[in-house]
Amino acid sequence: MNYPTQLFIDGAYRDSKSGGRTTLINPATETALCEVAATDVAEVNAAVESAQRAWESGWRDLAPGKRAAILFAVTRKLRENLEEIAQLEMLQIGKPISDARDEAGLGARVFEYYAGAVSRFGGETLPVARGGIDLTLRQPMGVVAAIVPNNFPLTLLGTKLAPALMAGNTIVVKPAATTPLTTLKIAELLQEAEIPAGVVNVVTGSGSEIGDALVTHDKVRRVAFTGSTAVGRHIMGLAAPKLKRMTMELGGSDPVIVAPDANIKAAARGIAIGRFWNCGQMCLGGKRLYVFEEVYDELMEQLTRTVSKYEPGLGWEKAEKPAIRVGPLHTSSGRDEVLEQLQDALDTGGELVLGGSKPDGPGYFMKPTIVANPAIDGRVAREETFGPLLPVWKVKDLDEAIALANESEYGLGASVWTNDIRIINRVANEVEAGMKWVNQFHYGYDELPFGGVKQSGYGKEHGMEGLDYYLEDISVVIGGLE
Ligand code: NAP
Ligand code: MG
Questions:
Q1: Could you tell me if residue 482 is inside a domain?
Q2: What is residue 44's three-state secondary structure?
């Protein structure tokens, strides 16, 4: 495999002058994959300056139609190279190759979606000043710092890059320290799609070492952050004195409610996907399950049967072993944290229903795990669980289910399984979350604005709202012409 291992500034790959390097580990085997250059602060500054030059020297003035044509070319390039991108994604994260291919496909499609936004670029003329003309302009902002987490490096890169570029901004991307490979590969493909040098730059390395310099750089006008709530808070604090535009796509602990009239078989299947896909390392994911007592036994029986078929395994063996549905966790410390949350659930009265252990052998694997009725104020209820762990509680009615669903600092997603419009109506109105599903697992769509409430952040990605966050709306009043 040919790994891209250098940072990407001003249209060229280069090693870090400081000589710093980060060793990437394959989480499925715990062996080293390759060493990637670790950017230093001077190089972060060089990347921002390169982006600023590219913005001033043409990208911001390019007609939207021309930018749309380039984004369509990006989609084609990503599709032509889909297999290589998916292989890199699988190796750096550990997910099954089929999931990595799906992610690479979504990462390509988002450029096509925002290229289509070319028809939405107009401002408005408004009848305000009698005898004059009033209009609104939609202008790009300048340099965007895009900070991406480790669970979906491709799609979460696309949801920032595509609207930012369509709007006429330039970008410095910082992928997670442990998952830079697909971002670096895409930088090369963007150039082949004729994105000019400097419009997209990639700085690799540790967020705690270079993140502050990137976020606080004077020329960075907009910060697009996806990651944990803790790091998001830190970045907001850094960016506040300079009033940088921000979107904060942060952690979540989505509740799922199963009502007595639900199609239990469909619910069990959807809940399994919604919790255990990507080994449970998802922002949107059904992470707290509340089941009405009337259907609790039936649901649990179906759910355990479904989830017991989710076998952890090596992503590249998926073709020969279709039962492999989950890869490893991304890091050893990430797995330790989930195991500690499980232990807390068991110590506070929870009953282990399924899984609960690490399989033998190398890799940061953990068996898909279900725990029943732990304390309602324990760690799995209060914290985000970022791994294959599902706590389930029996509830007596909808009032209790909604109260418990809202008993969380997070508000990213929520779902309900029912055909009863009264229940749907109450969940739609009363559960505190930015995105809700009825009889569907937790899945994002390019077309639908996506973002959290409460401590899950603010601002939207996806949809035309996602583009709005990369534009300044400027009002112009023209009067008194002679
Ligand atoms: P994370 O630890 O918060 O890291 C996210 C990104 O921030 C990484 O690139 C990280 O770099 C960087 N970073 C760390 N410290 C920084 C600093 N001081 N300044 C600037 N950047 C800094 O999150 P993660 O572990 O990668 O991902 C999991 C979290 O992301 C979960 O909470 C999950 O729910 C959330 N998430 C949210 C969404 C959403 O759309 N709402 C989507 C996916 C994931 P390093 O890797 O070098 O530390
Ligand atoms: Mg992290």
A1: no
A2: helix
Q: 283 and 169 share a domain? A: no
- Whether 293 and 226 share a structural domain: no
Same domain flag for 246 and 258:
no
Identify the domain containing residue 265 by its residue range: 254-445
Whether residue 365 is contained in a domain is answered as: yes
Quick one: 109 and 142 in the same domain? Answer: yes
Q: How far is Cα 469 from Cα 261, in angstroms, rounded to an integer?
A: 40
Q: Helix (H, G, I), strand (E, B), or coil: what is residue 341?
A: helix
300 found inside a domain: yes
Structural domains of the chain, count: 2
Instruction: Encode burial over 94-119: b for 16+ CB neighbours within 10 A, e otherwise.
Output: bbbbbbbbbbbbbbbbbbbbbbebbe
Q: Which of 228, 341, 384, 408 to mutate to test the pocket of ligand 1 (most atoms within 8 A of CB)?
A: 228
* Domain at 312, CATH number: 3.40.309.10
- pTM for this one? 0.97
In this predicted structure, what is the pLDDT of residue 129?
Answer: 67
Ligand 1 closest atom vs CA 249: 41
So what's the pLDDT on residue 121? 81
Confirm or reject: Cβ of 149 under 6 Å from ligand 1.
yes
Residue 481 lies in a domain: no
Give pLDDT tens digits for 441-462: 988 899 999 999 999 999 999 9
Q: Are residues 261 and 314 in the same domain?
A: yes
* pLDDT under 70: residue ranges of the chain: 129, 481
The predicted structure's pLDDT at residue 128: 77
Cβ of residue 150 lying under 6 Å from some atom of ligand 1:
yes
Alpha-carbon gap, residue 183 to 57, rounded angstroms: 24
Question: What are the residues whose beta carbons fall under 8 Å from the beta carbon of 50, sequence distance 6 or more?
Answer: 9, 10, 197, 198, 201
pLDDT of residue 306: 97
pLDDT in tens, 145-197: 999 999 999 999 999 999 999 999 999 999 999 999 999 999 999 999 999 99
**463 lies in the same domain as 422:** no
